[in-house]
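For the sake of clarity, the format in which proteins appear in this thesis is described at this point. The record quoted next illustrates the convention:

___
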Amino acid sequence: MFITRLESLRGIAALMVAVSHCLIVFAVNQNEMIWATPLQETQGTQAFITRLLLIPFNGGAAVTVFFVLSGYVLGLSLDRKSKSLGTCFAFYVKRLFRIYPAYLVCLSLIIFSIACFHTYTVYPDTSVWFKEWYQNPITIDNVLANYTLFETNLNQVAWTLKVELVMSVVFPLAYIVSRSTGAKLNLLFLFLLIVCSLIRALLPGSLYFMYGYVFYLGLILPTLIEKLNQLVSLKAWNTLFLISIACLISARSVFSPGNLFCAVLMEAVFATLLIAILADGKTNPLLSRVLDVPLVRKLGQLSYSFYIYHFIILYWLACGLLSVVSPTVTAAYPVMLGLLLAVVSVVISYYVAFLSYHLVEGPMIKCGAATAVKVSRSSGTVPNVALASQETGSISESGIESPSFSRKTEK
């Protein structure tokens, strides 16, 4: 059975990222790094309101949700394939077609707009985050590095796509480990991945080590769902659902910005619980019904394109606004202007995502599925074509089925 709520959850997560970016365009009460300021240390009413809004609109928590979903969905897709080298190659083909084409088109449009129309300007009363974008002219080397995702400085969210692709390379191996070992060895492997994440937090290192265990949590989610059904009564699931939401969005308020490891760990645990409850489907928590709203479901379908296009749309809208509004106004009404940017940029991004999905993303997903079938057949493995056509979707893969489990999602 197709689990539409998990696809809708991707849409909500993409919206969280978008709104969080809008809220940090402006300096608030002269605070140019409001996102890094603990709520209790904010000074000024507007700073307090902005920091409060950044709890439900928590972009970091949303990214963690994306990664757990990716692990879960990709694992389910491989469950329906034969365990062969051809399946592994087909998996890589589908991942490339899922992530790269829409990203390449989006990046090309970003490069064109910045190279042709952008002049770097330091606007008063804007945040450190906003001021750091597009300071230097775009070079050929920089363009090539961004196309290959060796660098991600031309699209604010591209670093997550880089993590997705790197995790995809090692995912078949992680899948074999998760499906061929018992619960105890799975937990041991998860613990080792968490230790790697801790080492990365203590020492300079790659983000892949930071988020590796987050993908693995999604990968072992089917087993966790079975354990939860044994340990938690049905009556307690609604309460657990609300607790999971609260803890997920508040993790970066509980821990300081310097303690990213603990914040991500807390987010990963409660994102896993949240997804488990939605995937299990035995309960119908009140708040989860928002995920059944048709517009939210549509946003879930468009979430990948929405996610990659929103930043550049926001950036140009902010530049336009800052060029016509006086510094006195931006200093006096940063919250109102941030919310205005959110409304306008989200609406525009939705329709741009609609075009991207139907003109680029959707056709390339189908092309990837067809190519994967050819790759599998050439190696003597014939995949489930019906499932292949279903693995389409959102921030990276999308869709979803149930366990019965089956589904189609991923960043």
Notes: Residues 383-399, 401-411 have pLDDT under 50 and may be disordered. The first helix runs from residue 4 to 23. The chain is about 70% helix and 0% strand.
